[in-house]
What we know:
By secondary structure, the protein is of the alpha+beta class. The protein is built from 9 helices and 10 strands.
Amino acid sequence: MPLLAGAVLSVLTSTAPAGAQTDPTDAARAAMLALDKATLALAEAQKSNDRIAALTQAVQAYEEGLSALRDGLRRASLREATIQGALTAESGRVSKLLGVLQIIERAPEPALLIHPSGPLGTARSGMILSDVAPALQAQAETLRSELEELQTLRALQENAVDTLKNGLEGAQDARFELSLAIARRTELPRRFVADDGRMQALVESADTLASFADGLMSEPVPSGGAAAPQRFASVQGRLAMPVLGQIIRRYDEVDAAGVRRPGYVVATRPMAIVTTPWPATIRYLGPLLDYGIVAIIEPDDGYLLVLAGLGQLYGEVGEVLPKGAPIGLMGGANSSDDQAFLIAAEEGTGAEWSQTLYIELRKNGTPVDPSDWFAAGKDRD
């Protein structure tokens, strides 16, 4: 009996319980629910009076849901690997624990009550087993909890494939519908009609973004910026980012080529929607220098917001856009391969963040630090 009790104590003291972490599961499930809501939002957008605004919100809902699901699945995959690794590392101790339990179960009841050294030994052995039993039960509960969580995580990842497929297809449908709605749009106010010849001459004569922006500001256009309930300066520090992404380079930071630029570089996923953070007039749309496809909007007198690196543009120069209006989509091929999506999400390689948007805000001809204006990206980790 002392050997049996000692074996139990040895197994228990050498095995540390690992608490179950359900946050990755909850996060992934919440993201799947968000994608279901995005599907409903897309259906409702067809009946909305302002279809462009409704479709824009549907696209954003899909992008946010897919991004959250990527993160949830990545965390779930990491949690699964952690549990599997712990179970593998503890396999020897778990086997000993199961062996001890089997020995106790097979031992005849009288043998458990009789000790070779007499009544005193029997009493001591009983005290040891009474101490061991609760710890033994706790260890068994921990093992069962981890196995159940492992099963839940695997089932979640299997079920996520259908949700991913529907979400990716829904996002593509929403972007297509949005493009059609914008192509048919006629109700936008227009501040001025662009002079294509003068604009082309300005593009050809500019050798830097700064010189082009200065040329734009010197072009004669009607006074008064885009109609807004309050001035642009009043929302300094509270602007929403124009795209869902990750800031990878900040104001005046040097890139790998040693180039400094007075703006943000934001990594985005392919086909991410880009919107106006404030009501603004479109001042330029098209290719510019080495910045790729560029949209420049004027949120107020003296201010220009440069958005460079898009793949598709919406609208026409001179139109006045409301806050949150789509100005374009990022480039790249947005894969509809749900399995590839799942693998990338689980590996967390960041391969999906393949596009970059350059954001530069200029005030009276001088670039300003975006961190002073946008609510996101203020913390420098």
